[in-house]
Design brief:
There is one protein chain. With 696 residues, the chain is mainly α. Helices cover 55% and strands 6% of the residues. The protein has a 5-stranded mixed beta sheet. A two-stranded antiparallel sheet has the order 1-2. The longest helix is centred in the middle third of the chain and has 34 residues. It is globular and about 85 Å long.
Length: 696
C-alpha cells in the first residue's frame, strides 16, 4: 500500500505539473503575451521537450501523407508545423540573453543539441524531401502568388543547401557536424558573457581625473553595493567601458581597461581560441560536404551579395575610397595629441576615444556630456516612438496590464493611425549581470496569418544597456546611445509592421545583408534638426535643445567617418578571412587575424589583444560570413535616405512607399526587387560617400 501511495503521489505530481505549465495552453493574457509571472525556469525544459515531441509527430504526418504532394499539404503544412515548440522557444531564447543564470545556461546546453538534431532530422527525412522536391519540380503548373512562390523556393533551398541530397555516410557526417557546431557556438557565446562579468576594477579617488560626475556616481554606488564603500567600481560593461576610455586622463588606466577588454576569452576557463578554430574547421568541412569551396561561398548563396567576390569587392571599394581620409584624420589627431600633451605622442588604440573627443570639442565646440541633459531617456522614448508616428502614423501606449520579465522592462501597445492593433513592444534599457552587453531587437512571437484567416500580430522587444538612473538623476543618453535606440527601433518596426502570410517570411526574416536596412535607415534622423526639435529638452529646465547645439551635432557628425568605416571593414575582413578559406587554417589565430585586416589597419597590433575570441556576431550570433552586411546595408540606407532628403525627411508619400515596400514585406520577395521598387534604381556607394564627406 505504501508503495502504491508513493507511486500515486508521483503520478499526481506529474499531472499537476503538466496542468500548471503555462506553455501547455493558450496564454490567457493581454494580446496573448507571455505570462512571465507564471513561468518558472523548469517549465522551459519541460515545454521544449513536449514541443519537440509534437513537432516530430507533425513532420512525420506530413512525410507519411499518402496523398499526392501539394503546396498546401506539404509546403504550407511544414511552415505551420512546430507551433507549440516555436511558442516556448520564442520566450526562452530571448531571455537567455536578457535574463540568464546558471539554470538557463544548463537548459540551453541540454536542449541546443536536441534542437539541432530535430532540424537535422527534418532536412534528412527522405520522404519529406521527396515531397518538397515533387512540389518544387511542378511549380510552373501551380497557381501560386508571389509569396507562395517565395515560401516554396526558400523551403526547397533550405533542404538543398542543408544536405537533403546527401546519401549514406554523408548524411551521418552532416548530422555530426551540425550538432557539434551548435554545441560550440552556444559555448562560445556563454564564454563571452561569463568572462565579461568577471572583470571588476576598484579604483580610488586619485584615479578619477577626467571622468564625468555621472560615471563617478555610478561607480561609487556599484562599489558600495559590492562591499567596497569608499572606492569606485568600474566594469567592462559597454556604457562604463566606452565612457572610461573617452574621458579618463589616466593613460595607464585607459591602457589597462583596453587591454582587459580586448584580450578577453584568450586564456583560462573561458578561452574561446580552441572553440572558434574548431567552429571554423567544422563550417569549412560542412561547406565542402555540401559542394561549396568555402563556408562563405556556401552561405552567401542565400544572401543579397550572392558571392564572396561581391562582398570583397564592396569592402575593397570602400577601403580605397576612405583610405586617404583616414590618413588625414589620423595625422590631424596625432598632431593634436602631441600639442595637447606638450610632447610627442604615439597614438595607441586606447588613446583614440580620449583625444578624438577632445579634438572634436575643439573643432566643433561640442561636448557630448553637455548634450546628455537634453537626451533624458523618457523624452528620447517619446521622440523615437514619435518618429514612427510622423512617418507611419503609429501610436505607442504604455500598458501596465502586460506582464514583463523584469521590473526594468516596460510594455507598450502599438496601434495604427486608424486605431487597429499592430503589436506589442517591450523596452529593456538597463544593464544587469543576467544580461548580455550590447543592444539588440528580438521577437517573442512573429506576425503571420493562420489558415482560418486570423492575423497574429507580433510581440517584439528592444534591449539595450544604457546607464541606469542614479538617485534623483534620470538616465541621460549620449548621442551614440540615442543612435543605438534608433537603430534597434528600426528592427522593431520591421517586425511590427509585417503583413505576411507565413511566419518564416515575416518581419525580420529576410536575407542577413538586407535586415540592417530598416535599422540603419533610422539612424539618419539623429542629425536632423526637425526631428530633434520634437523631443530634445533639458531634463531640469524643460528648455528645448539650442539650435546651435544641433548645428554642432550636425557639423561633427562626419568627424571620424573614415576611422569608423575602416574599423567596420576590419571586422568584415576578419570574418571573411575565417570563413572564406578553402583549406584548413594552420596559422596561429593572432597572426591569421592580423593578416586578415592589414590593408585596413589603423593601429599596429597589440600583443595579447584579439578581436576573434569575443566576436560573438560571427561565432555565436548568426553573422558568419555576414558581418559585411552592416556596410552593405549602410550603402542601402544612405541611398534610401537620399530620397527622403530629396522629397522631405517626413514626406508622407516616400514614407508610405518605404513602409509598404520594405517594412511590411519581410522576406516575401527578393530584397533587390523590393529595394528597386521603393527606390527606382540599384544602390551605389555615392550617397554614403557624400553623407560621410568623402565625396562632394
Amino acid at each position: 500500500m505504501k508503495q502504491f501511495l508513493i507511486l500515486l503521489s508521483f503520478l499526481m505530481l506529474a499531472v499537476m505539473t503538466k496542468a500548471t505549465n503555462p506553455f501547455f495552453k493558450d496564454f490567457e493574457t493581454v494580446h496573448n503575451t507571455p505570462p512571465f509571472n507564471l513561468i518558472s525556469e523548469d517549465h522551459y525544459e519541460e515545454a521544449i521537450m513536449r514541443g519537440l515531441d509534437l513537432a516530430k509527430k507533425e513532420i512525420d504526418a506530413i512525410a507519411n501523407n499518402q496523398e499526392v504532394p501539394t503546396f498546401e499539404n506539404t509546403i504550407v503544412a511544414m511552415a505551420e508545423a512546430g507551433g507549440d515548440l516555436n511558442r516556448v522557444l520564442g520566450v526562452f531564447f530571448p531571455l537567455t540573453s536578457s535574463l540568464s543564470d546558471d539554470r538557463m545556461i544548463e537548459i540551453t546546453n541540454k536542449v541546443s543539441p536536441l534542437l539541432s538534431e530535430y532540424s537535422t532530422l527534418i532536412i534528412l527525412n527522405q520522404k519529406l524531401w521527396d515531397r518538397v522536391k515533387t512540389v518544387y519540380d511542378n511549380r510552373e503548373h501551380l497557381n501560386l502568388d508571389g509569396e507562395d512562390k517565395m515560401l516554396l523556393e526558400t523551403t526547397y533551398e533550405s533542404f538543398a543547401s542543408s544536405g537533403a541530397n546527401l546519401k549514406g555516410d554523408d548524411r551521418e557526417t552532416y548530422a555530426r557536424l551540425t550538432a557539434e557546431i551548435s554545441d560550440l557556438t552556444n559555448k562560445f557565446g556563454q564564454n563571452v558573457l561569463r568572462e565579461l562579468n568577471t572583470y571588476k576594477f576598484f579604483l580610488t579617488s586619485d584615479d578619477l581625473d577626467g571622468l564625468p560626475e555621472s560615471l563617478i556616481e555610478e561607480a561609487a554606488i556599484a562599489a558600495r553595493e559590492d562591499g567596497q564603500d569608499g572606492k569606485y567600481l568600474f566594469t567592462l560593461a559597454a556604457p562604463v567601458y566606452s565612457r572610461f576610455l573617452k574621458y579618463s586622463s589616466r593613460r595607464d588606466l585607459r591602457e589597462m581597461m583596453w587591454k582587459a577588454y580586448n584580450s578577453r576569452n584568450t586564456k583560462g576557463e573561458f578561452n574561446n581560441l580552441p572553440v572558434m578554430t574548431r567552429i571554423v574547421e567544422l563550417r569549412r568541412n560542412l561547406a565542402k560536404l555540401l559542394g561549396a569551396e568555402t563556408y562563405a561561398a556556401h552561405t552567401l548563396r542565400r544572401k543579397m551579395a550572392k558571392t564572396p567576390e561581391n562582398v570583397l569587392n564592396l569592402l575593397q571599394q570602400l577601403s580605397e575610397a576612405y583610405r586617404p581620409a583616414l590618413k588625414a584624420e589620423m595625422d590631424e589627431l596625432s598632431a593634436f595629441a602631441s600639442e595637447y600633451e606638450g610632447k610627442p605622442v604615439e597614438l595607441k588604440p586606447w588613446d583614440y576615444s580620449y583625444y578624438s573627443d577632445k579634438l572634436k570639442k575643439q573643432k566643433y565646440d561640442f561636448d557630448t556630456e553637455l548634450i546628455r541633459p537634453y537626451f533624458e531617456l523618457n523624452n528620447v522614448i517619446d521622440g523615437v516612438f514619435g518618429l514612427a508616428t510622423r512617418l507611419y502614423g503609429l501610436n505607442f501606449t504604455y500598458n501596465p496590464e502586460i506582464e514583463v520579465y523584469h521590473p526594468d522592462v516596460k510594455a507598450f501597445d502599438v496601434t495604427d493611425a486608424d486605431g487597429s492593433f499592430i503589436g506589442v513592444i517591450y523596452t529593456d534599457f538597463f544593464p544587469r549581470e543576467s544580461k548580455t552587453s550590447g543592444a539588440w531587437m528580438t521577437n517573442f512571437s512573429e506576425q503571420f496569418v493562420s489558415s482560418d484567416g486570423t492575423d497574429h500580430r507580433p510581440v517584439v522587444s528592444i534591449v539595450m544597456n544604457f546607464s541606469k538612473p542614479v538617485g534623483d538623476k534620470p538616465s541621460l543618453l549620449t548621442p551614440d546611445e540615442v543612435n543605438t535606440f534608433l537603430h534597434e527601433f528600426g528592427h522593431a518596426l520591421h517586425g511590427l509592421l509585417s503583413k505576411c502570410k507565413y511566419e518564416n517570411l515575416s518581419g525580420t526574416n529576410v536575407y542577413r545583408d538586407f535586415v540592417e536596412l530598416p535599422s540603419q535607415f533610422n539612424e539618419n534622423y539623429l542629425t536632423q534638426q526637425e526631428f530633434l526639435n520634437g523631443f530634445a529638452r533639458h531634463y531640469q529646465t524643460g528648455e528645448p535643445i539650442p539650435t546651435e547645439m544641433i548645428d554642432r551635432l550636425v557639423a561633427q557628425d562626419r568627424y571620424g567617418a573614415a576611422y569608423a568605416c575602416m574599423r567596420q571593414l576590419m571586422f568584415g575582413l576578419i570574418d571573411m578571412a575565417w570563413h572564406n578559406s578553402p583549406d584548413s587554417i594552420t596559422t596561429d589565430p593572432a597572426t591569421f587575424e592580423h593578416n586578415a585586416y592589414k590593408d585596413v589597419m589603423i593601429f599596429e597590433p597589440v600583443e595579447g589583444a584579439l578581436t576573434s575570441p569575443q566576436f560573438s556576431h560571427i561565432f555565436s550570433g548568426g553573422y558568419a560570413a555576414g558581418y559585411y552586411s552592416y556596410k552593405w546595408a549602410e550603402v542601402l540606407d544612405a541611398d534610401a535616405f537620399s530620397l527622403f532628403r530629396q522629397n522631405g525627411i517626413f514626406d508622407p508619400a516616400t514614407a508610405k512607399s518605404f513602409r509598404e515596400n520594405i517594412l511590411e514585406r519581410g522576406g516575401t520577395e527578393k530584397p533587390d526587387v523590393l529595394y528597386r521598387r521603393f527606390r527606382g534604381q540599384y544602390p551605389t556607394i555615392d550617397a554614403l560617400l557624400k553623407r560621410d564627406g568623402i565625396k562632394q
